[in-house]
Amino acid sequence: MNLYESLCDLVGKDKATINETILRHHSGDESHHLKVEPDVVAFPESTEDVMKIVTFANEHKIPIVPYGAGSGLEGQAIPIKKGISMSLVRMSSIVEIKPEDLTVTVQPGITRLKLNDELKKYGLFFPVDPGADASIGGMAATNASGTLAVRYGVMRDQILNMEVVLADGRVIETGSMAKKSSSGYHLNSLFIGSEGTLGIFTKITLKLHGIPENIIAARCTFPSIRSCVDSAAAILTAGIPIARIELVDARSIKQVNHFSETDFPEEHSLFIEFHGNQSGNEEDVDFVKAIVEDMGSSHFVFETDSLKRAHLWKARHDLHYAFSHSYPNLSILSTDVCVPISKLPEIVEYTRNQLDTYGLDGGVLGHVGDGNFHTALLYNPQDPDDIAKANQFNRELVSYALKVGGTCTGEHGVGIGKIQFQKEEHGTALDVMTSIKKLFDPSDILNPGKIFPNS
Amino acid sequence: MNLYESLCDLVGKDKATINETILRHHSGDESHHLKVEPDVVAFPESTEDVMKIVTFANEHKIPIVPYGAGSGLEGQAIPIKKGISMSLVRMSSIVEIKPEDLTVTVQPGITRLKLNDELKKYGLFFPVDPGADASIGGMAATNASGTLAVRYGVMRDQILNMEVVLADGRVIETGSMAKKSSSGYHLNSLFIGSEGTLGIFTKITLKLHGIPENIIAARCTFPSIRSCVDSAAAILTAGIPIARIELVDARSIKQVNHFSETDFPEEHSLFIEFHGNQSGNEEDVDFVKAIVEDMGSSHFVFETDSLKRAHLWKARHDLHYAFSHSYPNLSILSTDVCVPISKLPEIVEYTRNQLDTYGLDGGVLGHVGDGNFHTALLYNPQDPDDIAKANQFNRELVSYALKVGGTCTGEHGVGIGKIQFQKEEHGTALDVMTSIKKLFDPSDILNPGKIFPNS
């Protein structure tokens, strides 16, 4: 059987391709994981197209790997077992905006920046901000979060309902349009973060938020990375409803200045943002200023101008590119552990020291308000020693995080890179997850080889 | 086989009983559903006790119904198929408070008031507030919420991790101690709201919050129930971060005044609360005052005194008792639909009118910030016509809610009373839920007869 021709017969010539360039484009994501080309790329344009393709693939036991914007960092979109890469790019429209309900229903292919452009007209925004211009479907599939999660939560907190095509072609809705429900099992949260292994998302209803009446951004620098994180912990336990609180270490600031032509002082820094009404924000800012100055901070700088604020956050978000574009011949391994806040200072300090111990170059940065941080670790993919060191560094960091009650991935997902830690993190619960996967996808056609050891 | 003696042999004489009074005490909850006595009541004192009892019950296909505080409103704790009522009352301790992580780990039997008494010492509180002094285990099992959900979310938003004993005796952890995670499937949310049908919770780790620096309560009255709900919707869409916003109709206010010896004006009212810093709250209060006065509100009254505030909310929370204790010979059917905010004004008005159409007595009240409201419907359980009218009223209200994209239960859960609506609400997704139930509990020993039609 010729897979390409079968798909053409099934959904139409214009919705499947074996064009070399397009196959290559769907062979990888933004991670360091090895690229693998699919046999075919499919471009469904409707839920019905998705149903046809999935049903066909299930009959013939052909792998299907959903593809959104390709901005993933753990290889979720890489078709490591070949088969069909299902691009959702043609399912990128807004189905319905309901400003009075503070909800929007979208197709999975739409990216978050395009969505927020549309929402601006209504004075609304969607707050989950992973930095990259990811697709909403991909963000749901990995339970993405990012800089605003400390205030607004993660994807799982922001999704009311999804339309999902199951491996056997059945279509279900996982929630409702009500803001809360205690009716039946919560399928929403089971599918969110399932990384394409349980079903294909074809519609997603999101909660929206009013653009805050007043926003103040601030940054401050610290003599040590430890005092940086201690301050963040102090601000959180003081109960100040911070909207963003980001750690960027001196090494990363240097890279930002180089790439984004900024001139931030090249010291360990916190970038902070406040959302609320003006008087409330000003009181919170004063409180935070007092806390960080107690902790030895200097250069406490405000940013109320919205353009300058956007510039500041863009610089922070471009960090991954700041490293990757500056070192085209090196790969970046991005770690993603998340730990209880009280353990954050010690593990961040440990991480910074480990980089030096291993003689590895990289930046430490992250969403310290959630206990989640990343190491952008530079290594030479041609050098076996370098690869070994990077992997060893990552393994030791994850073991540390798990020992203190944390997780191997706060927001990037398991994909390929975190499979090795699933048994250690979840124990018997991993067997339960495996049995759920088998229940939903007995032929293992939905993104096979992801999340589960030897699936 | 004598079940009682077998349990005594298994866990010890002091941990099982067939005492008539105790059996009767475990035959019902606070709902209108018919009471059924269990064959035995078991009092496990550890996870190991629970494992032993569950494993034994699974071998011999004996129903197990977990029992917390008995404050449920849909019969979840009623052992309708007899067997074992498993009281968690002896597993009611705080395992560990971690103020620096803003988390606490508890056993399921502890009640929320006892927990909050302990947390006060640390300047912390647990915000999920269903009114009744429910057990944390029961609140997790029904995904309870209540008056503070509009600001702090529901149980599902507040639980980091649970220890759960499965039907086959395996023990799993459903999450981690990290504030967020993208590792594996989200078992937390699958078990939360599963009403004892998937496993028995033996440990629960909750997120905590700092007691707000400043709290202001307010109440205001409206000429019509419609303007009441319109105002709530306007406040929400204005993006004001309200902490509580409760509708109490004139009929309910009358009952509150009678039962709680308060003297609130007997008109349709909103009870509101603001959490934050002082200047922020004051600015929000002014904004809200302006909105509600535009909507024709009068009697806008503040309450900053914490005792008076507590008194106000206690009156609101005692509403169910205010009706039940005043009409000892009548039963109360409490409806629990939740709809998109924009549909709330029309459905609340519809509900108030339906009461008159049917000539039924009852109050309309609820968590209008979430689109969730209740009808405390009085009926005579000895009068078949009255019963028929009450059920008809409830069925029509749920159909209305489902038609506009809502749910049959916002916070009480399915239990017995909402089973009849599961197929209509979930469609094909109900088949998926049923297959998950069969996967976890093939012998159907865990709270059989709940949630699922003819299970």
Features:
Uridine Diphospho-n-acetylenolpyruvylglucosamine Reductase, domain 2, homodimer, oxidoreductase (chains A, B), seven-stranded antiparallel sheet, FAD binding (chains A, B)
Provide the CATH architecture of the largest domain in chain A: 2-Layer Sandwich
Quaternary class: homodimer
Average pLDDT metric of chain A: 95
Q: What is the number of beta strands of chain A?
A: 18
First and last CA, distance of chain A: 25 Å
Question: Could you name the CATH class of the largest domain in chain A?
Answer: Alpha Beta
Characterize the main sheet of chain A: 7 strands, antiparallel
Indicate how many domains the architecture of chain A comprises.
Answer: 4
C-alpha-based Rg of chain A, rounded: 22 Å
Look up the CATH topology of the largest domain in chain A.
Uridine Diphospho-n-acetylenolpyruvylglucosamine Reductase, domain 3
Hey, which two chains have the biggest interface? A-B, 100 and 100 residues
Q: What is the overall silhouette of chain A?
A: globular
- Judged by helices, strands and strand pairing, the structural class of chain A is alpha+beta
List unreliable stretches of 5+ residues of chain A: none
Share of helix of chain A, binned: 25-40%
Which strand-content bin applies to the residues of chain A?
15-25%
- How many helices of chain A does DSSP assign? 17
Strand order within the widest beta sheet of chain A: 15-12-14-13-17-18-16
Short characterization:
Two copies of one chain form a homodimer. By secondary structure, chain A is of the alpha+beta class. Chain A is built from 17 helices and 18 strands.
